UniProtKB/TrEMBL annotation:
UniProt keyword Repressor, yes or no: no
Residues in VOC domain copies: 4-132
Record key words, sorted: Isomerase, Metal-binding
Coiled coil: none
Gene designation per UniProt: mce
Gene Ontology MF term list: methylmalonyl-CoA epimerase activity
Pfam families (UniProt xref): Glyoxalase_4
Name of this chain's protein: Methylmalonyl-CoA epimerase
């Protein structure tokens, strides 16, 4: 089950400048800054009610964010939904004909297991599923 619009991921060139901008825009500072080595990104998170804004900057030429910004302007990179059971949703989406970008859930930022749905199978939007890792989740 999809339970929440968890966050919007925004691709930015300059993370510090974007953090300052969003601190002004939202009237509050971020609650977390995190480097995700597996994705070669630095991330900054802002809480906005029940949802979040995730700023993403690539830290290597191979980063998906760096490649995205070589082709497109800064802006919305992905839309993330919280799900109760990521493996169940991955199975369901495969049966519905969606193309998933990873075979298994992987460790994402902000203490989450994540999986991405290819934009070509989701009306041009890169969709992220995320499930909060509880202390009893072994992964
Ligand atoms: Zn995300």
């Amino acid at each position: 089950m999809f339970t929440n619009l968890e966050h919007l991921g925004l691709a930015v060139h300059d993370l510090d400048a974007a953090t300052d901008l969003y601190t002004k825009l939202l009237g509050q500072g971020p609650y977390k800054k995190e480097h995700v080595a597996s994705e070669a990104v630095d991330t900054v998170f802002f809480q906005v009610g029940g949802s979040k804004i995730e700023l993403l900057a690539g830290t290597s030429p191979e980063s998906a964010i760096t490649k995205f910004l070589e082709k497109k302007p800064e802006g919305i990179h992905h839309v993330a939904f919280e799900v109760a059971d990521i493996r169940a949703e991955m199975t369901r989406l495969r049966q519905e004909g969606f193309t998933l970008l990873n075979e298994e859930p992987k460790r994402g930022a902000d203490n989450k297991l994540v999986c991405f749905v290819h934009p070509k199978s989701a009306a041009g939007v890169l969709v992220e599923l995320c499930q909060t890792i509880s202390p009893t989740t072994h992964d």
